[in-house]
Structure formats: structure tokens, C-alpha cells
Amino acid sequence: MQFTTIFTLLSAAALAAVQATPLAPRDVYVPPILYPHAGTVWTVGQRHNVTWDNSGPPVNITNKVGRIMLRQGGLTTPLILADNFSILLGRIEVTVPWVTDGSDYQLVLFGDSGNFSPDFTVNGA
């Protein structure tokens, strides 16, 4: 019984300390993708530099580690084109994966947030 009381008091004290600790303000950084843009045509197996506008990032970015994934038809596929890079770089080279032809592809740049490129086309080899 005494253990339960002590545990309850310590838990309450820890919770009060956590709630009283102010968090540093964080800014969501959503750099727009510049390439590929609408009208871009990629071919399976080619290498391209995905670029995004990295000018003016906020001071307190929540997550600076980037990932680029492929979307088609409004759904993000499991295909990771690039991973574990700084979103402050502004570009990263990727290889076009083996996918079906389509004009409804997009890239999503993850890091602090996820943002999509305009639709572009991917053609088979």
C-alpha cells in the first residue's frame, strides 16, 4: 500500500515537471519541389537531380533528414528514391525505378513535412 502511494506521488511530480517544461518553438519547413515539374518526362533507368527551393529555411526545423518517395495516381508507393540526406541540400540525384508508363507520377519530399511535385511522366525503357 505504501509503495502504491509513493509511486503515485512520484508519477504526479514527474507529470507536473514535464508539463511545466517549455518546448522550444519549431517551424515546419516545406520547400517546394522545382524539378521534376509539369511536362517533365523521365525514362526508366535514367538518373535525374530532384531539386527543391531551399532558400530561407527557418531556424528551428523539426526534422532535417529527407526522403523522396514516388507517388502515382494520388497514392504514395513504397518506392524510396533517396533517403537519409539533409533537406537543406536543395537537390539529390535519383535513379528512375522500373515502373509502368504513366503521366500521373509525383515525387513526395519528406523531412519536416511532406510536399508533392507537380504531375510528370515516366516512360518505360
TrEMBL record:
<protein>
    <recommendedName>
        <fullName>Yeast cell wall synthesis Kre9/Knh1-like N-terminal domain-containing protein</fullName>
    </recommendedName>
</protein>
<feature type="domain" description="Yeast cell wall synthesis Kre9/Knh1-like N-terminal">
    <location>
        <begin position="36"/>
        <end position="122"/>
    </location>
</feature>
<dbReference type="Pfam" id="PF10342">
    <property type="entry name" value="Kre9_KNH"/>
</dbReference>
<feature type="signal peptide">
    <location>
        <begin position="1"/>
        <end position="20"/>
    </location>
</feature>
<keyword id="KW-0732">Signal</keyword>
<dbReference type="InterPro" id="IPR018466">
    <property type="entry name" value="Kre9/Knh1-like_N"/>
</dbReference>
